[in-house]
Amino acid sequence: MGRDVELIFDKGAPGRRGSSLPAMDVPKADDFPEELRRGAPPRLPEVSELEAVRHFTRLSRLNFGVDSHFYPLGSCTMKYNPKFHEKIASLYGFAALHPLLPQLRRGGALTQGALAVIYETERLLSAILGFEQFTMQPLAGAHGELTGVMLIAAYHKDRGDKDRKVMLIPDAAHGTNPASAAMAGFDTKIVPTDNDGNVDLEVLKSLLGPETAGIMLTCPNTLGLFDPNTKEVCALVKEAGGLSYCDGANLNAIIGRVRPGDLGFDVMHVNLHKTFSTPHGGGGPGAGPVGVAEHLVPFLPISRVVKRQDGTYTLQYNYPKSIGYIAPFYGNFAVILRAYAYLLTLGRKGLVRVGENAVLNANYIRARLAGKYEVPYDRFCTHECVISASKQAKQDVHALDIAKALIDRGFHPPTMYFPLIVKEALMIEPTETESKEELDEFINAMLEIAETAETDQDALKNAPVTTPVSRLDETLAARKPRVAE
Amino acid sequence: MPYIPNTSDETRAMLDTLGCADIDELWEKTGITLPKPSLDDIPEGKSEHEVTNHLRALAALNATNLVSFLGSGYYDHIVPAAVADIAARSEFLTAYTPYQPEASQGTLQTIYEYQCAICRLTGMEVANASMYDGGTALFEAMMLAVRATRRRRAVISGAVSPIFREMIRCYSSNLDVELVEVPTDGTRSNHDALVEAVDGNTACVLVQYPNVFGTIEEWSGVVDAVRAKGALAVCSAYPIALALLKPPGEMGFDVVTGEGQSLGLPLSFGGPYLGFMATTMKLARKMPGRIVGRTTDTTGREGFVLTLQTREQHIRRENATSNICTNENLCALTALAYLSCVGKSGFVEVAELCASKARFARKLLLEIDGIEPVGDEPFFNEFVVELPMDASELVGRMIDKGFAAGFPLGRYYLERGRELLVAVTEKRSREEIKSFVNAMEAVVTNW
Questions:
Q1: Which of A1, A65, A105, A132 is surrounded by the fewest CB atoms within 10 Å?
Q2: Is B364 found in the same domain as B322?
Q3: φ/ψ of residue A128, rounded to 5
Q4: Is residue B107 part of a domain?
């Protein structure tokens, strides 16, 4: 077998190195006792800088990214990431700023610019989404969820409401919701979705009671649908003494059109790497700021950035009811910075256009695919549409096969097999940054695949054939893990 | 409109396909009939040029001109320019989690190489694809131990970063896990007390290497004693120090975590950073986060996939090992690019420069009348000195002279008000160190 894979460790030669360092200009001294000393240096690459650059450049070209391919991965909002944001994040005045500087001279004197970015982004999000305050600290979407449900836990604890241990979660929710609820000490109960794709109100009512801590609702939901009963759901939960949490993973649909705070949500997280255009980075870093209504403000994490009368900014720590430190400092600052630039560029009119075009594009795809693919909840969607490959499955062509066939046609596949309540699900989220021509090309590819599913199943079962590898053996990987060498 | 390509003609054509007269009807058909919210508090949009100018002006308000001896877990190291360039490749930057391995071999292979590098640094068998930061990684390690031992108590040394301890306390507040802190013995952990604190319900002991005071401690004895009592030994490590120091794996630790910022990531006022986590194969299935494995395709060619996914939230939901869904992928890639560009010998040289310059700085500082050593244990590139005045006040005066003089330990430990934690990296030249010492002498002498 040839060498298909060449690791960076396989390259180079003993003694070769890639970078230069300043010469030792002080006496060389490391007086560690023998028992603390490492035997041999760590086996790191020994490559020239060119070899390193070429290696990683080659690997990068094996990837699909938004910059190279249409990437309609549902629930992930793979929109364009403006280039100038990267330049701003690398400005020396931000990139070289040590997070402990505020401890060296209190009152924020050394970091006014950075504190302004955090504070002003917080205020913009609060105004756009209808909340009293945001914390910019959560480091990712799921981290925002965890922070949100910890705030709910702190609220009930503060009121002496000890029995509220149950978090209600719709069956269509992302897996992070139940996992986050569990990490905040809650038991979870599933709320089913009704035939129209909404929360089943009758079952919800039967589940509410004195043990209800709250509900975690994704809005719009993971079917890409706006539940017209959302206000009523929040009201019912409130009546039962619980709080309503809005998972903002799908915020791109309604940004500028609906303020979740107005629907009765007490707390929500947003994903800066989705709605607010910060790059996904192959899986992170992101950021998951959390907004709260007034009654949850006392519990927000510390520190908090506040604006003084004179227009300067400072950090405050003295909030006795706060849940404490969920992040080492002030959040993923460089991510917040990019989102701030995005909000300033869009302004109030741009924000409205984002939601409108995200919804228009998704519905256009839904309408054009509706004949050839099953659309399980046949109504207008928001920013993403969930279709099913159930028709094709009768020919033994499954969602997975369609996804792989799309790769060969130059498109990143949609999210597959989610939400779990739809068989053979394909969840398509085009975002507002794609043009109609691109959507048409994708639609044509999907229609052609549907036709091929009727005539030549094998051609699809063998896809992809244009990639550096074909389908990989995941069972082998899990059974005999090779995870390091 | 920036970033939105639909023209009015195209919008019209798409609305026609949908049978909608206008956007308002589109909203109505999605079920959204609420009145439109007021966005009066949101300013009008600005051009790229204007926004850039605004942010440049804000960046200029930050004190990044200080010559820095501030570390305390987050360090100002030299980073080759190629590192940021590699991580900025848009095929890495604008991809997402590699759910479709055939279209993500680039991301997957770099994660695999990162896992290898972390294992080689720490002396462990398996690493995950990364966590948010050092603090969350240490908390997740604690929960790994809770799952693995089915015990509900964790012992943590007071010489672990107070930031990490605060975070762990916060996350534990709703979980049935008791956290026991063992006070320090000077600038060392109290080894006997740590071992004594382990009872039959203790899942793990958490320590730091070097510890928050910069002190390097030999842990083999503690690790053996802790493990003999059925608990796991967990270590949070400073990766640059591991170039010279005995790897935690050789001391027998079950889990090694740490803050990876020092591996080529900018300080960026607190993030994004990189939590790394490595453990033994025996515990691999208890580990949270993504893991990449090497496998073969349908024709026998080698490739990479996300693996051992049955641990994860999208499958196990509320029974998952963690809610984490992110890996700080771009930060992990940056760390890998850093370790590749600096390379085997360069990495050792970085650590030697750090250690030597720190010793040089300490020696000169201790020659100043009134500055006293605190502890005489081995250290790596960070050490504590005692001043004849409140350290935070001295730090304030040093800012006026252009230096971030170090971290005043009184901010963490009330009784250490006169102690200053000084970090020296390879970035500081001999001249900078000397002028720092001169400035310190002037301030201390003229107090």
A1: A1
A2: no
A3: -70, -35
A4: yes
- Chain A interface includes B139 (CB < 8 A): no
Fold of the A87-344 domain: Aspartate Aminotransferase; domain 2 (3.40.640)
By residue range, what is the domain housing residue B361? 67-76+344-445
Do B407 and B367 lie in one domain? The reply is: yes
At what angle are helices A333-369 and A436-455 packed, to 10 degrees?
50
Tell whether B362 and B297 lie within a shared domain.
no
My answer on whether B71 and B188 are in the same domain is no
**Residue A2 — very low, low, confident or very high, per pLDDT cuts 50/70/90?**
very low
Judged by DSSP in three states, A340 sits in: helix
Average pLDDT of chain A is 96
Same domain, B364 and B387: yes
Give A462→chain B minimum CA distance, Å.
Answer: 9
Side chain identity at residue A204, one-letter code: L
Q: Nearest-CA neighbor of A183 among B146, B318, B142?
A: B318
Instruction: Report the alpha-carbon distance of residue A412 to residue A408 in Å, rounded.
Output: 9
B361 and B319 assigned to the same domain? no
Task: Mark whether B333 and B351 lie in a shared domain.
Answer: no
Per the DSSP assignment, residues forming a β-bridge with B154 are B179, B204
User: Where are the extended beta strands (E) located within A36-124?
Assistant: none
Residue B114 has pLDDT above 60, yes or no: yes
Residues of A with Cβ-Cβ distance to B296 under 8 angstroms: 472-473, 476
- Tens of pLDDT, residue by residue over A50-64, are 999 999 999 999 999
**Residue B325 has what pLDDT?**
86
Task: Give the domain ranges of chain A.
Answer: 1-62, 87-344
Choose among B126, B313, B348: nearest Cβ to A176: B313
B284 Cβ neighbours under 8 A, 6+ residues apart: A481, A483, B125, B126, B291, B308
Chain A partners within 8 Å of B323 (Cβ): 142, 145-146, 176, 179-180, 182-183
Structural domain contains residue B110: yes
CB contact under 8 A, A150 and B173: yes
CATH number, domain containing residue B97: 3.40.640.10
- Name the one residue in this structure whose structure tokens are 């919804």: A359
- A154 with A306: CB under 8 angstroms? no
A330 CB burial (10 A radius; 0-12, 13-18, 19+) = buried
d(CA A92, CA A152): 39
The domain boundary residue, chosen from B337, B363, B393: B337
Q: What percent of chain A has pLDDT over 70?
A: 99
Q: Answer yes or no: do B319 and B392 share one domain.
A: no
Q: Which of B447, B425, B408, B422 is nearest to B364 (CA)?
A: B422
Domain final residue pick, B269, B303, B337: B337
Please say if the pLDDT value at position B248 is more than 70.
Answer: yes
A293-315 pLDDT, tens digit per residue, is: 999 999 999 999 999 999 999 99
Average pLDDT over residues B93-102: 96
ipTM: 0.98
Task: Answer whether residue B10 is part of any domain.
Answer: no
The model's confidence at residue A1, banded by pLDDT at 50, 70 and 90, is very low
Domain-embedded: residue B3: no
